[in-house]
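To illustrate the input format used throughout this study, we show a single complete record. The first block contains the structure-token representation of the backbone; no residue identities are included at this stage. The design step must infer an amino acid for every position from geometry alone.
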């Protein structure tokens, strides 16, 4: 059994000289036996012809055996001569070398292997080569087998190995049939990793805490290589910039820790021993000049004493001695020198602070950890810096998303209450207008109340559009027709000094969107473009088809591959400053003067476009102009007859029904809204039964003699909500029609509505005609 097999490595398929010798010897022995047997059989009194044949066959077998024996002797002598020749070459070689069989048995070793620095006892002739490396690195048999396999295929192989005693290079050459020449070269003076050239202790740790690498300085500090980080640091986790205890053969000692995060969760940990920190000599910093962790030595008064190369690059300054740290960092909320003085005096927690690098036009944030060093008579501070720009960017994005979500929730919640109030105001105003004609002196006042209620409703709609909770009535539209119909209004909006230009793709694909809302988006963009050109200019509206073969990532959004209709609104205005371009879609943010805008135009446009399934981007350059690009997915689904959108259709002309024509069960928890709706329906000839809650409505329906043709109910009410009580009521009255009304968006209960047959949705605020005509339409 070979040495490799004993170490768990199977080399049964290898072509080796030893196996060749064994096979030849076996064949020679078998031929000799067959020759002897055949010759003996020829003398047993057989026929002459048969006896002659057996003698010839026996002679052939014996001849083959003799030839094979000669070949075996010749090959063994040749092999011995080859070993001897190689031995003469290696005898005076300064590097350690072995000549071994393919199975790892040593045939020769040169005198250099007797050196005392060779790990383990050097194997003698006939011993295992793997034993020579057992103390040098783990699992030597596997390493030797891997390198030898490469040599079998390529003729030569080598591998650099970082061991506990330094860096070595192990190479192997094919020296003949079944012979391999091994050489071990000490290359400790040629570091295998950049960290080996660093005088400071450094190690690489995996995400699970396994120590993957230690440089020589770290191994000397802790007394050898360790396998787990908890063998080095008694207190975990390791915090960059903090002074932590390190386990050494002489006990624990304090060291300043610098951590550099790498790929795959790996970390490179550097130590600055206490004696290095305590020294107040610039020469001591020569060792950390090329350290990949930013370090700055600062006086308690704020002067920079010295900074390494990475720190200078991070702070974008030469950081010459005498410069002040406050010149490069800002955002603490108090003078940086006060913070330095407190840490130097031992006051305060001294925890890390997140500061901004003072550099115009570039957002760069660093986490600064201070540690007291030096002598009591001459103290100084060691600042460990970490680039946290990406972290702060993610934090700002998260805060922004939280703010947007909060405003959206606020808009949705407030909209319900506002819409109830506006429904009552505009509704009772409609009732008053029915009793006043245009010649009445109160008529104009009532019209003003009605118009301002509609303006308030429009403002609430904008808030809902921003939060993507407004009610959309999507339809398949051709943007060419939509923009052409809108051109007359847009020309009046832009005025005489601004020229509006339209450029359409002749084969523009259709899209599916709410035409009214889409017109609002275009109007907002055109009005903003007009305001950006007080001296006049051209506003271009361009449309084209675009086919994206691969995903496009821009402004933290990803446009999936597919066909889109691209709409561009281009102006020649003053442009948007770079520091404001990231805020233009925020609600209530405006660059206009007070009273000239609500700051909801672009945020509304953003919400409408996103709710339609599209994307909106902006490109702007000061002094040149701005381009808004809108991407809408192409609608290519065939029309499906019979599928209706569960939204109230446009109201037909007013129709009066006879007083006993239909019975309406009106369920509304807001008394002013219920009072208006009840009066409005009675004026149109309906019989109205009122209920202020779902429970009261179900109690009324317990009377089997009560005939109800239609339910008009609010969606959100205290106790049982609208869809819940309607489903329960429809069990006994399955053919009753339903009109849901709510100040919330329709999608707030869209799943419930889809499960309720014969139902439509009427959003608040609604007018008298909206309500009565919707009820009439449902009864048809």
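Output of the design step:
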């Amino acid at each position: 059994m070979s040495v490799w097999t004993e170490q768990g490595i199977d080399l049964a398929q290898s072509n080796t000289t030893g196996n060749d010798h064994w096979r030849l010897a076996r064949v020679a022995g078998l031929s000799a036996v067959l020759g002897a047997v055949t010759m003996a059989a020829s003398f047993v009194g057989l026929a002459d012809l048969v006896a002659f044949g057996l003698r010839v066959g026996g002679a052939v077998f014996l001849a083959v055996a003799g030839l094979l024996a000669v070949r075996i002797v010749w090959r063994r002598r040749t092999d011995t001569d080859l070993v001897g020749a190689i031995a003469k070459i290696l005898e005076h070689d300064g590097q350690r070398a072995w000549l071994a069989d393919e199975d790892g048995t040593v045939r020769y070793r040169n005198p250099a292997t007797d050196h005392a620095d060779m790990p383990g006892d050097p194997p003698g002739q006939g011993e295992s080569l793997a034993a020579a490396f057992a103390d040098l690195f783990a699992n030597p048999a596997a390493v030797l087998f891997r390198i030898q396999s490469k040599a079998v295929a390529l003729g030569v192989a080598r591998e650099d190995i970082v061991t506990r005693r330094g860096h070595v290079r192990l190479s192997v050459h094919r020296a003949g049939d079944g012979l391999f020449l091994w050489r071990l070269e000490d290359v400790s003076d040629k570091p295998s990793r950049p960290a080996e050239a660093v005088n400071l202790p450094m190690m690489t740790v995996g995400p699970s805490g396994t120590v993957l690498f230690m440089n020589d300085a770290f191994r000397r500090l802790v007394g050898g290589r360790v396998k787990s980080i908890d063998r080095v640091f008694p207190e975990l986790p390791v915090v960059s910039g903090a002074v932590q205890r390190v386990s050494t053969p002489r006990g624990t000692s304090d060291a300043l820790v610098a951590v550099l995060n790498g790929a795959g969760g790996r970390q490179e940990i550097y130590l600055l021993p206490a004696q290095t920190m305590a020294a107040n000599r610039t020469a001591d910093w020569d060792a950390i000049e090329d350290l990949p962790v930013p370090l700055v030595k600062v006086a308690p008064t704020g002067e920079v004493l010295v900074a390494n190369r990475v720190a200078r690059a991070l702070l974008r300054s030469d950081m010459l001695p005498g410069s002040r740290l406050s010149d490069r960092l800002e955002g603490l909320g108090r003078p940086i020198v006060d913070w330095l003085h407190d840490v130097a005096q031992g006051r305060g927690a001294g925890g890390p602070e997140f500061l901004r690098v003072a550099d115009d036009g570039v957002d760069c944030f660093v986490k600064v950890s201070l540690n007291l060093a030096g002598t009591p008579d001459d103290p100084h501070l060691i600042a460990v810096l970490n680039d946290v720009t990406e972290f702060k960017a993610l934090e700002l994005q998260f805060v922004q998303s939280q703010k947007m979500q909060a405003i959206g929730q606020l808009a949705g919640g407030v909209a319900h209450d506002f819409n109830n109030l506006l429904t009552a105001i505009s509704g009772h105003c409609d009732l008053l207008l029915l009793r006043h004609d245009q010649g009445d002196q109160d008529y104009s006042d009532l019209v003003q109340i009605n118009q301002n209620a509609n303006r308030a409703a429009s403002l609430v709609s904008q808030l809902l559009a921003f939060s993507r909770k407004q009610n959309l009535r999507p339809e398949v539209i051709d943007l060419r027709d939509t923009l052409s119909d809108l051109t007359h209004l847009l020309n009046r909006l832009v005025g005489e000094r601004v020229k509006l230009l339209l450029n359409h793709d002749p084969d523009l694909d259709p899209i599916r969107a709410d035409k009214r809302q889409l017109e609002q988006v275009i109007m907002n963009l055109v009005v903003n473009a007009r305001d950006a050109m007080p001296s006049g200019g051209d506003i271009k509206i361009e449309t084209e088809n675009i086919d994206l073969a691969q995903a496009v990532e821009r402004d933290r959004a990803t446009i999936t591959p597919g066909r889109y209709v691209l709409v561009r609104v281009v102006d020649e205005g003053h442009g948007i400053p770079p520091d404001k371009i990231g805020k233009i879609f925020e609600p209530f943010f405006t660059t206009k003067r007070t009273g000239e805008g609500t700051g909801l135009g672009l945020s509304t446009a953003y919400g409408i476009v996103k709710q339609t399934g599209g994307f909106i981007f902006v490109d702007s350059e000061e002094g040149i102009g701005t381009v808004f690009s809108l991407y809408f997915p192409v609608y290519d689904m065939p029309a499906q007859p019979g599928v209706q959108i569960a939204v109230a259709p446009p109201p037909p002309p007013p129709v009066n029904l006879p007083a006993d024509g239909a019975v309406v069960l009106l369920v509304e928890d807001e008394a002013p809204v219920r009072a208006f709706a009840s009066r409005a329906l009675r004026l149109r000839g309906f019989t109205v039964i009122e209920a202020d809650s779902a429970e009261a409505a179900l109690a009324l329906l317990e009377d089997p003699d009560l005939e109800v043709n239609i339910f008009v109910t609010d969606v959100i009410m205290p106790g049982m909500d609208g869809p819940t009580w309607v489903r329960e009521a429809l069990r006994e009255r399955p053919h009753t029609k339903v009109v849901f009304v709510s100040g919330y968006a329709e999608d707030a209960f869209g799943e419930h509505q889809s499960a309720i047959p014969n139902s439509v949705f009427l959003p608040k605020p609604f007018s008298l005609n909206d309500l009565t005509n919707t009820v009439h339409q449902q009864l048809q």
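Structural context for interpreting the output: The mean pLDDT is 76. The longest strand covers residues 537-548.
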